[in-house]
């Protein structure tokens, strides 16, 4: 870790070991340069941490903190414009407003950030600290030193930083370079995501989606989450890659993967079969021998495009059981689709109008076409509750419960798992809700013996022209299904659909 040499009133200096940036406190302009006031963590002088001004280039390793600061600055900007338009406070009154760490760094600061010093741990009578007004540099030994001693250091109490003066200056100063650097970093990360390109467009403001997010190709299983072991993933043993049309599985009654798939009751026309079916259903016997359907149109099927969902699944909430690596049907089986990932080009965009970021497609999408899965950390119900309770209620929610089989398998709520897509996931984390959606979420399982870990896959439920926002119904309601009365935490729905239910969740 580097040492920082802080000059004290331009005469002497003290050397402290800097462990990390704790937070960014303020910003200002020096000529054309944007500077940001950094508070450092240092265990050998925790009550008197160094704070120093830095250019955007010097902050490239803590862009997430810079982004947090810009969000706080934006809030201050809104607050200050509301104050000046509503009550025209006197300047002296504003000057004396105390800027304490408690009031100045509100809930926007992520609760899980390990490096943030909490207000309660701040010393009761804080020691004055030195703010060096110049720039810091690295010397030939790797120590961070002052580049210039032109400006004397000022002494100030940390709990009063930023001072009202600093706040006023910061609101007038440009932050364009910081915004651009954050945007560049996000774009660089997007460029590394495998598959079709993900674009980012913002025609409303300079903000970028949170850098506290990592794109991942599949779930991350967290503590306490147990996925059924690989040897329970049976796979179909009676199928082969070449059963006539070279499309892998061809016969639903042979394909072991469909054992638990929904029976296509409309296809039971034989009276004897009907009796046998009703009996098997009543006794809870295997329904493997009854007619089912594969979920996707196959290559060579006349109707519509290969790979899109057949209406039997599209218009129902039935789980989809795809073939897996243990199957004998080969890699090109018609019953494998979602497991290969996204194949459409998408765009993350700033929606405006209070819904934050959204996702839209860059190409025409057909009814029944697979878009992408919802990914994230799979956590226990208890952990999800803990995260929910520690989060700011007005913040976006990215929790998705894996409760599809709760009722049929008798799984208690507390034993269910939840996907948290806030910090890890895919572009689907940006799909907003609509009461008249163009996508729908489906359960996709690769292991029929695991009712607790499965994929959530989004498919288009109608043709979607390029450029249209992708949406799904967060409550997954059937048409006309009533919703509960809105509770105190209900969030107003801004989807603007003619049939809008007015509340996002109740
Ligand atoms: C999974 S996130 C969707 C992406 C989010 N807009 C963002 O900027 O990250 C869910 C959150 O988006 C917002 N949201 C989504 N659909 C909305 C709607 N129809 N009306 C109001 N807010 C919506 C809510 O804040 C919700 O908690």
From TrEMBL:
Highest taxon of the lineage: Eukaryota
Gene3D superfamilies: SET domain
UniProt-annotated location(s): Chromosome
PROSITE patterns: POST_SET, PRE_SET, SET
GO BP: methylation
Protein name stated in the entry: SET domain-containing protein
One term of GO molecular function: histone methyltransferase activity
Segments forming domain Post-SET: 489-505
Keyword Methyltransferase in annotation: yes
Region (Disordered): 77-123
Lineage: Eukaryota, Fungi, Dikarya, Ascomycota, Pezizomycotina
Signal peptide feature range: none
Biased composition (Polar residues): 94-105
Low complexity biased stretches: 106-123
Main localization of the protein described in the UniProt heading: nucleus
Record keywords, A-Z: Chromosome, Metal-binding, Methyltransferase, S-adenosyl-L-methionine, Transferase, Zinc
Domain SET: 344-475
SMART domains, A to Z: SET (SM00317)
Pre-SET domain ranges (all copies): 234-341
Single GO cellular component term: nucleus
